[in-house]
Amino acid sequence: MKNWRRRIAYGVIILAVLVLLVYGFRPQPVNVDTARAERGTLSVTVEEEGRTRVIDRFTLSAPVAAYARRVDLKVGDPVKRSAPLLTLEPLPSGVLDPRSRAAAEARVAAANAAHLAAKENAAAVASGAGLARIEHERVLGLRKNTLVSAEQEDRARAEAERTQAALRAAQLQVEVARHELDAAKTALAYSAAQARGETLERVTLSAPVDGRVLAIHRKSEGVVANGEPLIDVGDPHALEVEVDVLSDDAVRIRPGMRVRFERWGGDAPLEGVVRTVEPAGFTKISALGVEEQRVLVIADITSPPAQWERLGDGYRVEAVFILWEAPDVLQIPSSALFRAGGEWYVFTAEGDRARRHRIEIGHRNGLQAQVLGGLQGGETVIVHPDDTLEDGVRVETR
After folding, report:
1. Phi and psi of 62, rounded to 5°?
2. Are 75 and 50 within 8 A, CB to CB?
3. pLDDT value at position 200?
4. Which pLDDT value is given to residue 299?
5. Contact residues for 168 (Cβ-Cβ < 8 A; gap 6+)
6. What would the mean pLDDT of 280-296 be, rounded to a whole number?
7. CATH fold for the domain made of 28-42+328-397
């Protein structure tokens, strides 16, 4: 009897060990994450950061090198068309230090002496010219009576002409010396070291349009160069949005395409439309130091101006270009897709088993994918399938 009891006890222990071994080595279900195939609106978009800018921006520049007066306006001040904004005056003369002033006074004295010498020389030449003229007249009278030869007459005439030419040259030298004297006196008299009267010649820069002051490049008075920008004027209520996108995204964006502006500071997104995609690209270095080919896309804001009246020039917006959109689309997470043999597949969770299905997909936006065939709405798909999943494998939802 005791042997039978001992045998039964051993049998129970061996059976329990076998059950534990079978249970321990039995394949465990794979933990998975799931999502449902549902219908809803699906959009394929391109998102990039953009900024607003005034459509018609006018930069007033100095037409000549001049002295600009201080600008009394401030950025944001309203201006009317033809209203004066800035006054330019001729450049003031340079200040003469004591050494330069002494040199200038010496040049005035030298020019004055040269002028007096030229006048004395002209008087001497005039005297010689008068004597030559009288001599020529005397020879002409004697020639009529044949008292002198023709050679003497020619010599007297040539001498009279020569002295007349010398007289004219001496008179021109007097004029030159006088002008040099005036120039030396002017350089000394119009020095900034001496007080002068008010400048009469001024150039006034006026507003070309009604709008506001957008930027003041030079507020304090001082010398400005020819062509130097001074003031920017424009209408901040006439805005457009410029967005630089990758060139491979730009080829998918067309004029007239809908665009949505988000994260601009308002409560609701703004609507817009693409006006133009510029035909020329440019190279830009990304934050990671990678060279990228970018293209500027210009879009207009079509929402009522009352919704974005607080927007200004150079404000940041997030532009979402709607490449494709449909309201009633069967869709699943893109992370549930995998490829095999050139086809798209998903795993569905049917009970506690994973089932493999070949499906057809349409548009994708990076997060969701459109299902054209192979799945029904409401089915549960496994997201992020790994290599441990096979058709018929037991699964357990996390």
Report:
1. -70, 120
2. no
3. 53
4. 96
5. none
6. 92
7. 2.40.420
